[in-house]
């Protein structure tokens, strides 16, 4: 007998419980139902989403790392990746959940860094010269080695301090409406890493629930008509984005222009990846900023500083209504993929999910993605191959073994792509003694041991 829709929905809701034991039990129950034939799932498809924020920073759907792993299996997404702002809290849970769900998983972190060589140039953080969204990928544990622990802790603390200071300015502006970071915002998070989006949710809800006319309040504060505010409030996603732009983004009452001291340096952030044998990863926006119009110079600088992969969010670069803007950004998309391939940089592609309404996975059947599809799939296989071999045998992309046996990124990509293709999730058939073998022998071993 098939599992009822209500029962499935109940278990899926439990996947986002703040108690990790509840999340794990819910996933195991769903997979038991699959094995029993009560839930039918599609075959895995050659599609990827390697950039999914979890509720450890902010997910627009409230998804936990475990839920993201289940989502990958439920939709037949072959490769899934979790990325959170300023924290690695999701890594262990996500990779473990992917193993038992049968999804090929990778895990990473995102932050903002300051790049002094581009201090007067806007890069990928609008209106903030010298500041860049930047990533690390291919982590195998939520715990980093001691030499990087202080840097990671400092990133978490800086983010918290920025948000507390911002909220104090917003509360002053919105008086008599105010919210408390400790009692109103932090309870929305499972591990104390609140974001601007959490604060927006609380502000909108408190205004709606505590004021006699929330629309009139917002109209007065922002000096616009009540009709316009009511129209925006008809779509909570639109309204939340509006509040964030007015209160928190550049020009907003809570915004403060960052300085070089606001964020870690690129070198500091890279120390986390170096200590963890993870991969520093550039984050590309859309090719339109002054910095991204100098992409070869910018990317060359980042590679010299350790970058060995690049992140792309495809949907915002082709799924655009305006024909002229679409043509321009699609050209930029093809150009950055071409550059990444020429410079042997694996591509991490995904939809973010840090805002409600964003796609759960890119439309890999779209004609616009046909020229870049293989590059996205190849990058996913490389990063997954690295993750599995690093996690179980200590011979990932940045390991001492790779330095000895694979002389450049091209050789690394060829090896880890094949490894990622061969290794099935959940197989646990990676021998720790592989570090004594050469690349050819390892691939032969993996091909034999992981035959379906």
Features:
452 residues, alpha/beta, TIM Barrel, 3 domains, 17 helices, 10% strand, globular
Gist?
It is built from 17 helices and seven strands. The chain has 452 residues and is an alpha/beta fold. The protein is globular and about 70 Å long.
Overview of the structural elements:
This protein is of the alpha/beta class. It has three domains: 40 residues, no CATH class; 268 residues, TIM Barrel, CATH 3.20.20; 93 residues, no CATH class. The chain contains 17 helices and seven strands. The protein has a seven-stranded mixed β-sheet with strand order 1-2-3-4-5-6-7. The model has no long low-confidence stretch (mean pLDDT 95).
Helix tally equals 17
Structural class: alpha/beta
- How large a portion of the residues is in β-strands, by DSSP E? 5-15%
Number of structurally distinct domains? 3
Going by CATH, the homologous superfamily of the largest domain would be: Metal-dependent hydrolases
Most strands sheet? 7 strands, mixed
Low-pLDDT segments = none
């Amino acid at each position: 007998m098939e599992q009822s829709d209500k029962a499935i929905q109940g278990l899926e809701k439990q996947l986002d419980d703040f108690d990790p034991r509840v999340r794990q039990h819910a996933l195991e129950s769903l997979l038991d139902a699959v094995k029993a034939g009560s839930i039918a799932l599609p075959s895995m498809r050659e599609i990827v989403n390697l950039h999914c924020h979890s509720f450890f920073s902010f997910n627009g759907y409230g998804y936990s790392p475990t839920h993201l792993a289940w989502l990958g299996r439920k939709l037949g997404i072959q490769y899934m990746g979790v990325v959170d702002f300023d924290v690695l809290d999701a890594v262990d849970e996500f990779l473990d959940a992917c193993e038992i769900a049968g999804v090929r998983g990778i895990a990473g972190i995102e932050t903002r860094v300051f790049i002094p060589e581009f201090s007067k140039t806007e890069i990928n953080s609008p209106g903030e010269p010298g500041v860049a969204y930047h990533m690390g990928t291919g982590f195998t544990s939520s715990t980093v080695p001691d030499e990087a622990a202080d840097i990671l802790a400092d990133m978490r603390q800086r983010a918290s301090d920025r948000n507390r200071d911002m909220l104090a300015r917003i509360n002053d502006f919105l008086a008599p409406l105010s919210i408390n970071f400790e009692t109103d915002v932090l309870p929305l998070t499972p591990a104390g890493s609140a974001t601007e989006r959490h604060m927006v949710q609380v502000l909108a809800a408190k205004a709606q629930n505590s004021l006699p006319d929330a629309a009139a309040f917002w109209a007065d504060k922002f000096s616009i008509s009540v009709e316009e505010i009511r129209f925006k409030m008809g779509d909570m996603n639109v309204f939340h984005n509006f509040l964030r732009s007015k209160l928190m983004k550049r020009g907003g009452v809570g915004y403060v222009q960052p300085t070089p001291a606001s964020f870690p340096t690129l070198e500091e952030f890279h120390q986390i990846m170096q200590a963890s044998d993870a991969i520093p990863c550039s984050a590309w926006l859309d090719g339109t900023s002054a910095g991204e119009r100098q992409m070869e110079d910018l990317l060359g600088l980042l590679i010299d500083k350790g970058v060995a992969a690049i992140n792309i969010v495809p949907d915002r670069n082709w799924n655009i209504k305006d024909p002229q803007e679409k043509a321009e950004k699609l050209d930029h998309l093809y150009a950055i993929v071409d550059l990444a391939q020429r410079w042997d940089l694996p591509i991490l592609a995904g939809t973010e999910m840090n805002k409600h309404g964003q796609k759960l996975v890119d439309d890999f059947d779209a004609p616009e993605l046909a020229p870049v599809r293989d590059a996205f799939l190849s990058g996913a296989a490389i990063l997954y191959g690295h993750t599995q071999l690093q996690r179980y045998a200590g011979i990932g992309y940045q390991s001492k073994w790779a330095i000895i046996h694979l002389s450049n990124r091209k050789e690394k990509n060829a090896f880890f792509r094949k490894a990622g293709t061969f290794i099935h999730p959940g197989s646990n058939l990676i021998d720790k003694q592989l570090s004594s073998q050469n690349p050819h022998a390892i691939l032969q071993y993996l091909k034999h041991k992981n035959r379906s």
